Structure formats: C-alpha cells, structure tokens
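Dear colleagues,

As part of the handover before I leave the project, I'm documenting each prediction I ran so the next person doesn't have to rerun anything. This entry is a single chain, and its sequence is reproduced below.
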Amino acid sequence: MRKAFSTIGIILLACLIIATYYDLPIDQALFRPDNGLSYFFEYFAAIVEGTVIMIGSGLVFWTISFSETKQVVMVISGLVYVLWSLVGIYWIQQYFEWWGIAYGVLAVIVIAYLVRKIPVHLAQRYRLAGIGIVLTTFFAMMVVEGVKPIFGRVRFRSMQEDFDLFSRWYQINGDKYLSVVPEMDEIKSFPSGHSMWAGSTLSLTFLATVHPKWQAHEKTVFLGLICYAVILMFSRMMQGAHFLSDVTMGFGVAFIFFVFFRYVVVQRSLDKLTIENKK
C-alpha cells in the first residue's frame, strides 16, 4: 500500500502544479452545464459520505462490550455515535430533504443491526476501523469547510460573464466577491467539499485492513474507491463547480488524514492488539 499511497501523492502534486498555471483553460474545456453525470454524482456523493460517517460512528459504539467497558468510555463513544450520525444524516438531508432524513434513520438502524452481528473476536478490530473512519471524516471536513470562507474563490459557473473574477488557488479573497455572485455558496470553490468527501471515503478500506481474511483485498478496495473519486472530481469540474486545483486540494486534504490515521491509529493499534492476543 505504501507504493500506491506514494503514487497518489505524486499525482496530486503534479495536478496542483498543472492547475496553478492552467486552472481556467481546463475548466473552459470541460464545462458542460446541466449534464446528467454531474448532477447524479453531486447527489450520490452526499449519500455515500453520509453513509460512511454513519458506518464509522456505528462501529465506534456498537462494537463495545457493554458489560466490560468503563462507563466513561461508553459515554464518550455514545456521544460520538449520536453526534456524528446526526452529521451524516444532515449531509444527506441537505440534498434529499425529508427523504434524506428517512434514509438516514433507516441506515442508522441497519448499520447498528449489522455491527452487532460482528463476531466477538473481531469486534475490537472493527472498532479500530470505526475510529479511523470517524477521525478521517471529522478532520478532513473541519479543515476543508473551515478554509472555504477564507479563500472565497468564485466558482467557474458564476464567472461566465466576467472571467476577471478568476483567482489562483493560493489567493485569499475572503468575501471580496460576495457582492457579484448570487449566493454565499458561489464563493466556496476552494477546496472542493465533494472531493474531500471522495477522499474521506477511502477510509472504508479500514474495514479490509482490520479483517484478517480481507487484508489481501485492501488494495483492490482502495483502487475501486480511487476510481469513484476520480469520476466524482471530474464531474465537479464538468459542472463548473470547481477547478482542478479545488478538487486536487479537497481530495488531497482527506487523503493526507486517511494515510495518517491508517498508520498512526488503525495499523499501530491493530499491531498492538495482535501482539496482546498472542500472549
């Protein structure tokens, strides 16, 4: 996996360098307003990210042995479960309204049921996967959503009448262009939130990482999720919602947290757990 991670990192760096000089012409070439592919992945990505968040929070809480776990751990895990599950439902609801809430509630119930079916000897392993998923999604979301208002970059689709509104990805604009766009969301181009969602989805590979029989298929799962991410990022540029640098940085932020928590939290704890079980 280290070779795959290094390759992705090199590709992301190359894309950012290219985007620094050719962001605008790339979007001009790709822009296809109102295309079905973009709209499908815009909404589909919300379901995927929301579900990933609920899977992570469900694994953190429902893998606990309630009779053997300290009360303080149960309380903290319970808070993480409730709050982060609500965040997952919220993101889906933003795109599907009441249907999103109905789906979210059903998903929470189904996930809880399936997690409680996990064999006792694998419960701790899956809890590590849940912790990794929660940490990856939380920190990636906080960083991307936190810096969007600072950079204040105008989306490509909102500058069709005036390309002087274009700014480089590293330029900080704040609310400079707020008066010339229809709504606040149109100055939140950088970094891409949907691409951050795609990068966070890579944390699903933790489910393979922690399962002894699935570890051999971890790379296959990873490559499948990378393909999904590439299509999603491409669709966001086609829609004019983002530039190449936006999707590169959005995905890159999540990718960094994914790799960090894989080695520092999931893999390290998994190795320690394996050693303890051998004693």
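The first helix runs from residue 2 to 30. The radius of gyration is 20 Å.

All the best with the project,
I.
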